[in-house]
Amino acid sequence: MKIEAAVLRGASDPYVIEPLELAPAGHGQVLVRIVGAGFCHTDLLPRTPGFMAQPPLVTGHEGSGIVEAVGPGVTTIAPGAHVVLTFDSCGTCHNCLGAHPAYCEHFLRLNLTGSGLDGTGPVTDRHGHAVAARWFGQSSFATHVLATARNVVEVDKDLPLEVLGPLGCSVQTGAGSVLLALRARAGSSIVVFGAGGVGLSAIMAARVAGATTIVAVDLHENRLSLARELGATATVRGGDDDIVEQLRELTRGGSQYALDTTGVPEVITTAIDALRPTGTVALVGAPSQPLTLPAAALMQGKNVKGVLEGDAVPQLFIPHLLELWRQGRLPFDRLVRTYPLSAINDAERDAVSGTTIKPVLLPGS
Question: What is the CA angle 73-104-289, rounded to 5?
């Protein structure tokens, strides 16, 4: 079928809206008409020299939409269903079977190459040339996508479908890191480094968890202001020279938990320094450089753990997040600004600059 999509033709090129040909839904696949798709910093990775997913490519991995058709073997979802799209997983490896699909043995191949495990994809351009369109099992910067039954989550039809896409990655990652991976306890303290979509979701989740000291660290005052509105009990400017001292004072000797969303080695070491003994820092930001820690960094029982996608089972966790939203306890929609798909380059610019916390592209606009 004919679709339109934002195609990245070169690592340094702007996106171009192009007509493409999408194959029919195959075994285990679901055809989804995209209503909204969040722009995430992970969508910048194919611009990195040597990255595993190479242009031409359709990115986008925070889609939401309506199922239009299902392929053979699909019994868990039906046409007409409203869905949030999330990361893909194989469903059969040790970690998938153990309820940790974000650590699927095939996660990188399924999500970060732009193609399936067999190296093929469902999309060609007007010249018949292949365009990679399996980014996170969806490539949702398009009017229609093929996902799998495993990476769609059905949601109620009375929900504002156009803004739900970020639940599939950034909101799930931030909230899941706090509630599932760190299992933050009531009365505890947490410092969140980076008040973007993931960090602000973590702050909202920390308030849900009952943390009594929630500190946001960022370079932008507008983000720190929003963090205070969403649950942060204190904020710190990321460029301050005495940041470790400030954090230790705010958390009465060090935080029990910390979350790094930046991937910057200097920020990570700051997070570790500001932990109390037995404290844990979760790393969710894509690493920008090698991380080297002093030999004594993890003494006193300090812990560092990497977290993907909040260690969530999306089919269980996303409905939980939506119930929190209905209760007014997780207002993730406050992070969103919408753009037509044709304005994707503006959305990318605003995401990179921090002007917009969570751009959401609307293919139907």
Answer: 140
